[in-house]
Amino acid sequence: MALVVQKYGGSSVADASCIKRVAQRIVATKKAGNDVVVVVSAMGDTTDELLDLARQVSPLPPGRELDMLLTSGERISMALLAMAIANLGHEARSFTGSQAGVITDSTHGKARIIDVTPSRIREAVDAGQIAIVAGFQGVSQDSKDITTLGRGGSDTTAVALAAALGADVCEIYTDVDGIYTADPRIVRSARQIPRISYDEAMEMAACGAKILHLRCVEYARRFGLPIHVRSSFSTREGTWVVSDPYSEGTEVEQPIISGVAHDRSEAKITVVGVPDKVGEAAAIFRTLADAEINIDMIVQNVSAAATGRTDISFTLPVNDSQTALTALKKIQSQVAFESLLYDDQIGKVSLVGAGMRSHPGVTATFFGALADAGVNIEMISTSEIRISVVVGQNEVDTAVAAAHRAFDLDSDQVEAVVYGGTGR
Amino acid sequence: MALVVQKYGGSSVADASCIKRVAQRIVATKKAGNDVVVVVSAMGDTTDELLDLARQVSPLPPGRELDMLLTSGERISMALLAMAIANLGHEARSFTGSQAGVITDSTHGKARIIDVTPSRIREAVDAGQIAIVAGFQGVSQDSKDITTLGRGGSDTTAVALAAALGADVCEIYTDVDGIYTADPRIVRSARQIPRISYDEAMEMAACGAKILHLRCVEYARRFGLPIHVRSSFSTREGTWVVSDPYSEGTEVEQPIISGVAHDRSEAKITVVGVPDKVGEAAAIFRTLADAEINIDMIVQNVSAAATGRTDISFTLPVNDSQTALTALKKIQSQVAFESLLYDDQIGKVSLVGAGMRSHPGVTATFFGALADAGVNIEMISTSEIRISVVVGQNEVDTAVAAAHRAFDLDSDQVEAVVYGGTGR
């Protein structure tokens, strides 16, 4: 008998009929001989409606109260789901994050899970019950206040709970049937990826693929927990996220590139004319860290010998831009940089693939494809299994399609054609 | 510095603008030098909307899950109210029933409060914060499951919390400015009652007056806690419910009759031809108790000597009628009664007043007034400070008005004119 943790997102439980359908799916998993624990998000637009109510009473609601408010969303969906399962003749119990033992720090709105002590969940499972757990929420260790985990929080709840329970798999249900080689809305010939490594899934998530959130994959990797990303609208296999997707016994040969991700949610700031001295870059990024801004790509060129000055560019979430610019202006005289440039009309396109480690020429093929498509590259950043470029925002679609085609991800045959080049 | 517990019902927090108005009122109480703890119900129609959702997924939802669902209602209103107060520059913290230490038994849907351990509320108050507590909800002592207190639950939460905190007063805010001598929709000249005893308020509540619930007054009486029933739309004094409203120092002379209550929510069942033997009535009411039916009035006449049989009539909530009739039919052969009569076109009219203890002739005046108004009396029941009659449902308004007039409750002068009679 396997222990399966299933996570259903807001669109899977958007209304009563959706909830009844999900209930049937859960019962089918139970009937197939599994123990089942379910993590559920708030129904459809509930969170937005609650945020709207909050804005009506206060322009800047305290984080503690906002968390108290928002967590009512999962409370509604989980109770309804438990009722729908009971109506199918199976016993179900719903639990808040606090009841499920999801212990977090006290950072309201984006709390981090410190520990999961799911004794009540285990008791319910041992009693043959289906446990329904509120995603996205926990209780703070210090003050016992209700917290929320921020974006992608329900996925993180599911994986953390699955790890704490020693589950065999964490199934993440969504409205598509897995992770694709590119966004199918941009590349119509994009293919579903049957198996992918944690590292690749993390790079995809970090580079804008919306299916899985970075924190949830990080958590799964730490505990070696398999994630199965599936559609709640079909029963076909989705994408398995595992530590070694191409180990013996799997039929699929490792591709060079697993997928092409893109992200339009960032902006670019360039700090112009930074004196090329020890500690200047550190001062800049310490200032940004103190303002709680997450930096993504950073590029610094060699300084011009004539001036002894260099330019530092970085990308960041567009919503954090004003805070960052304000913070940087405050240290302009201290650091003695010349000026700030700001551009929010950018997009990031990333190639992700563990296979690029052993294949030279990926960069050359990628850049060649972009050049042939007339796309200008503004910034470049690489990791061991990823190459990202920043391009103009209106060139993102063209760049994604060109890269997807260049690495033959369109075709059924998973083998990249790599043209010469100096390797990387 | 006084500690004031205030309770606001669903209509007082129906939307964002209502919540902001209530927040101002709370802040004004705080600014006047009081410590303030607030108990709040769910917004307007929230509970009905949640019940509707529940019905869409299950015809008979489990009580535990229904409680989990419904308690999201207060979670929303209390968080919004805390935000609105914060927006006025005062620190407010919201707490669930569980966080506020409202410990109940495990009877989902109508749990009883076993204990209140409000250490977190006291900490908040001691820190100068305004504590906002979810009404209507608690946590069960045994299973740590979320429970609801049933009808009037928020009032009970407020009084129980006020008692546990040793508050100086529990203010119950509603949409009228206190308890009236009769329902002003029926008797336009009905007057607000400035002070009333716990006993009278309990009889009024038990007899259909909707303002205060029986359980909440019971609780207040047990702890000697003053209740102040007020309008959330005005600042004038409402009705004070206290142990001795006519003690020295109060200017108001004790009236004979405090008010006339009515109730259209009951039905009448008559068990016809019950053998007049020891234990037959007990068998009937044991059966009804096992079916968890609350009986109100019971009338049994002396048995007819010729037959050795008697009729037993009782009233009960109209919603419980089918259950009661089914249960009684099952014991018809055992008890050997002849038949069952059922009437749901009844209404109950009650005179309540501690003063009737020392004034003879109240019954005669009451019955005389009903006779003059052409109202036929079907059943009579009395307590030390109450006389209730059952009349035809379409005669309730006439009976209430006639009684109100007969005891001069219409006029400003609070003195009843009692005509002769044998006294009671």
TrEMBL record, chains A, B:
Pathway: Amino-acid biosynthesis; L-methionine biosynthesis via de novo pathway; L-homoserine from L-aspartate: step 1/3; Amino-acid biosynthesis; L-threonine biosynthesis; L-threonine from L-aspartate: step 1/5; Amino-acid biosynthesis; L-lysine biosynthesis via DAP pathway; (S)-tetrahydrodipicolinate from L-aspartate: step 1/4
Family annotation (InterPro entries): AceGlu_kinase-like_sf, ACT-like_dom_sf, ACT_Aspartokinase, ACT_dom, AKii-LysC-BS, Asp/Glu/Uridylate_kinase, Asp_kin_monofn, Asp_kinase
Residue positions binding ATP: K7, Y8, G9, G10, T174, D175, Y180, R185
Zinc listed as a keyword: no
BP-aspect Gene Ontology terms: diaminopimelate biosynthetic process; homoserine biosynthetic process; lysine biosynthetic process via diaminopimelate; threonine biosynthetic process
Gene Ontology CC, one term: cytosol
Protein EC: 2.7.2.4
Keywords: Amino-acid biosynthesis, ATP-binding, Diaminopimelate biosynthesis, Kinase, Lysine biosynthesis, Nucleotide-binding, Transferase
Positions of the ACT domain: 269-354
Pfam families tied to this protein: AA_kinase, ACT_9
Entry binding sites for substrate: T47, E74
Domain of life: Bacteria
Known function: Catalyzes the phosphorylation of the beta-carboxyl group of aspartic acid with ATP to yield 4-phospho-L-aspartate, which is involved in the branched biosynthetic pathway leading to the biosynthesis of amino acids lysine, threonine, isoleucine and methionine.
UniProt family annotation: Belongs to the aspartokinase family.
Name of the protein: Aspartokinase
Native species: Microbispora triticiradicis
